[in-house]
Write a structure and sequence with these properties.
7 helices, 40% helix, six-stranded mixed sheet, Molybdenum Cofactor Biosythetic Enzyme, Chain A, 167 residues, alpha/beta
Length: 167
Amino acid sequence: MAQNTLRIGLLIASDRSAQGVRPDLTGPALEECIQSQGWILIRRDVQPDDAAILRETLTAWADRGDLDVILTSGGTGFSPRDVTPEATRAVIQREAPGLAEAMRQASQAVTPHAMLSRAVAGIRDRVLIVNLPGSPKAAVENLQIILPVLPHAVELLHEEPDAEKHH
């Protein structure tokens, strides 16, 4: 991996966008943020809020070996159809709670609704999976909170020799 060039997968969980009822505005907003970092968007898809489909997609993407980070957007709230955290927990092997905690904490300065987020983050083999909110504004704000640590997280996951120097 070229230094600090991350390979990203972006999975949008939205019944309405998957059905074509509403355009996906969050994906393009996140894609712009990803590209502004010089990172590569390898894969992007919109799937319905369905735990089985999300689990299958996350597993397939993580196991292919061509991604460093998978960002999900949507499905992290209290609605009965919000199942992204459950799908994520089903595929990760280790949680990375500090990322979700940091996003919730920083987001509370913007809105008290941040405490309603059930987003999780975790690791499957050498791939980091992070749940982001569904709205374009909140998704980008939350991604910006964790942007500074993502390259180092990937270095650690890949056991790069210089990773410890960046502590």
